[in-house]
C-alpha cells in the first residue's frame, strides 16, 4: 500500500466514530477514560464484550458483529491503515456493535479493566516460530496472564490459526499449565460438529488457505487463575 494511501486512511480513521486511538502514555498513565467504560460509553448497553486481537482488516470482527447483534465487538490492531477497511464497512453498513482500537496487544490490560471482557478471539496470528520470538507469541504465558486480568471469571479465549506449530505450541502450554481446554480441533472444516461461528466466518486469507487445502485449527479455552 502506498504511503499516500496510508496517510489518507490514517486521516479518515480520525473522523470515524468507531475508531479509538489512545497514545501509549495515555494508556500507561491511566488517562484512558474508556477503560472500564466501554459498554456504557461506546455501545450504550450492557451486552457481552468480545475482543479480536490482531484483527488485521477487521473483517472477522465485523462479521461476528453482524452475526451476533446482542454482543459488542472490538477489533484491536496496531496497524490502523489495515482496520480502516473494517471500520469503514461498519459505518457504511450501520453496524453499531463493533468498534476498533489502535494499540499494541501488550497494552491490553491498560485499555480494559479487570473482568470487563467476556470473550477473546485470536485469529491467524503470526506464529513467531523462531525460539527467540517466543515472547511475541500471542498465547505465551505472559499474554495469557494479561488476558486473564481483563476477562470475566468464566471468560473464554478462541484461537483460530492455519499454523499447526501455533496450535501444537498453545495446546501443550495450556495442558502443561493446567488451563481448561474446552474444545480443540486440528482441522475444523473436515470434522463434524465444529462450532458454527468458527466455520461460518472466513477471512480473506483463510479462504486462500482453504483453496490450498491448508487445515485450519481451532482451540477454545479458559485461563485458570
Short characterization:
The protein is α/β, with parallel strands linked by helices and 225 residues long. It has helices spanning 3-15, 24-28, 38-43, 59-67, 80-92, 108-111, 141-150, 164-177, 196-199, 204-211; strands spanning 19-20, 49-53, 72-77, 98-102, 117-123, 151-161, 180-185, 217-222.
Describe the fold and architecture.
It is a single chain. The chain contains 10 helices and 8 strands. Helix 4 links the parallel strand 2 and strand 3. The model has no long low-confidence stretch (mean pLDDT 94). With 225 residues, the protein is α/β, with parallel strands linked by helices. The chain is globular, with a radius of gyration of 17 Å. Helix content is 38%, strand content 21%. The termini are far apart. An 8-stranded mixed beta sheet has the order 1-4-3-2-5-6-8-7, with helices on both faces.
SSE topology sketch:
Elements: H1 3-15, E1 19-20, H2 24-28, H3 38-43, E2 49-53, H4 59-67, E3 72-77, H5 80-92, E4 98-102, H6 108-111, E5 117-123, H7 141-150, E6 151-161, H8 164-177, E7 180-185, H9 196-199, H10 204-211, E8 217-222
Parallel strand pairs: 1-4, 2-3, 2-5, 3-4, 5-6
Antiparallel strand pairs: 6-8, 7-8
Helix pairs in contact: 1-5
Keywords: Methyltransferase, S-adenosyl-L-methionine, Transferase, tRNA processing
GO molecular function: tRNA (guanine(46)-N7)-methyltransferase activity
Protein name: tRNA (guanine-N(7)-)-methyltransferase
Amino acid at each position: 500500500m502506498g504511503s499516500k494511501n496510508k496517510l489518507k486512511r490514517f486521516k479518515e480513521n480520525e473522523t470515524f466514530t468507531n475508531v479509538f486511538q489512545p497514545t501509549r502514555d495515555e494508556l500507561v498513565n491511566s488517562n484512558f477514560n474508556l477503560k472500564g467504560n466501554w459498554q456504557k460509553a461506546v455501545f450504550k448497553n450492557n451486552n457481552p464484550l468480545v475482543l479480536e486481537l490482531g484483527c488485521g482488516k477487521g473483517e472477522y470482527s465485523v462479521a461476528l458483529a453482524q452475526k451476533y447483534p446482542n454482543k459488542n465487538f472490538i477489533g484491536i490492531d496496531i496497524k490502523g491503515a489495515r482496520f480502516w477497511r473494517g471500520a469503514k464497512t461498519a459505518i457504511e453498513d450501520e453496524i453499531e456493535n463493533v468498534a476498533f482500537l489502535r494499540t499494541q496487544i501488550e497494552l491490553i490490560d491498560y485499555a480494559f479493566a479487570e473482568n470487563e471482557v467476556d470473550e477473546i478471539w485470536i485469529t491467524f496470528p503470526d506464529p513467531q516460530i523462531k525460539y527467540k520470538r517466543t515472547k511475541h507469541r500471542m498465547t505465551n504465558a505472559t499474554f495469557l496472564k494479561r488476558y486473564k486480568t481483563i476477562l470475566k471469571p468464566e471468560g473464554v479465549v478462541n484461537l483460530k490459526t492455519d499454523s499447526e506449530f501455533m496450535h501444537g505450541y498453545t495446546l501443550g502450554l495450556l495442558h502443561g499449565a493446567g488451563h481448561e481446554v474446552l474444545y480443540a480441533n486440528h482441522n475444523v472444516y473436515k470434522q463434524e460438529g465444529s462450532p458454527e461461528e468458527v466455520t461460518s466466518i472466513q477471512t480473506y486469507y483463510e479462504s486462500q488457505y482453504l483453496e490450498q487445502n491448508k487445515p485450519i485449527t481451532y482451540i477454545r479455552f479458559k485461563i485458570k487463575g
